[in-house]
Specification:
With 124 residues, the chain is mainly β. 3% of the residues lie in helices and 50% in strands. It is built from one helix and eleven strands. Strand 4 and strand 5 form a beta hairpin. Strands 2, 4, 5, 6, 9, 10 and 11 form a seven-stranded mixed beta sheet that branches. Strands 1-3-8-7 form a four-stranded antiparallel beta sheet, with no helix packed on it.
Length: 124
C-alpha cells in the first residue's frame, strides 16, 4: 500500500513559480504528477522512475516544469516556473509499486495510487 500527501500549492501571479511536494510512504517504482483544470479531464504532467531517476514529460510541460525526487526523504517534487493562468487546477501526485506503463503514456486511468491533490491558482 502506498500513501501520498501533497503540499506546496497556492496562489501566484502569472510568471511566478511554485514548488509542489509529495511525501510518499510505501515502496514505489514510478512516481508522477497529473493535473486537472476546472471542467477538464485529468492530464499527465511528468513521471519519474524512482530507481533510475529517469524522467518523462508531457510535450506541453517540458521546459517550464521539472520533476525531481529526494530518495532519502521519499519525497517527490514538481518545480513550476513561468506559470500561466491556464496552469490553474488541482495537481495530483501519482504512484505505482511497479515499473508502470503510465510513466510513458501519462494516462490517468492507469495510475494505481493517488494523493489528495494540491490546488494551484495562477492569476493574470
Amino acid at each position: 500500500q502506498v500513501q501520498l500527501v501533497e503540499s506546496g500549492g497556492g496562489s501566484v501571479q502569472a510568471g511566478g513559480s511554485l514548488r509542489l511536494s509529495c511525501a510518499a510512504s510505501g515502496y514505489t517504482n514510478t512516481l508522477g504528477w497529473f493535473r486537472q483544470a476546472p471542467g477538464k479531464e485529468r492530464e499527465g504532467v511528468a513521471a519519474i522512475y524512482t530507481t533510475t531517476g529517469f524522467t518523462h514529460y508531457a510535450d506541453s510541460m517540458e521546459g517550464r516544469f521539472t520533476i525531481s525526487q529526494d530518495n532519502d526523504k521519499n519525497t517527490l517534487y514538481l518545480q513550476m516556473n513561468s506559470l500561466k493562468p491556464e496552469d490553474t487546477g488541482m495537481y495530483y501526485c501519482a504512484a505505482d509499486s511497479r515499473v508502470a506503463r503510465w510513466y510513458k503514456s501519462l494516462t490517468p486511468n492507469e495510475v494505481k495510487y493517488w494523493g489528495q491533490g494540491a490546488q494551484v491558482t495562477v492569476s493574470s
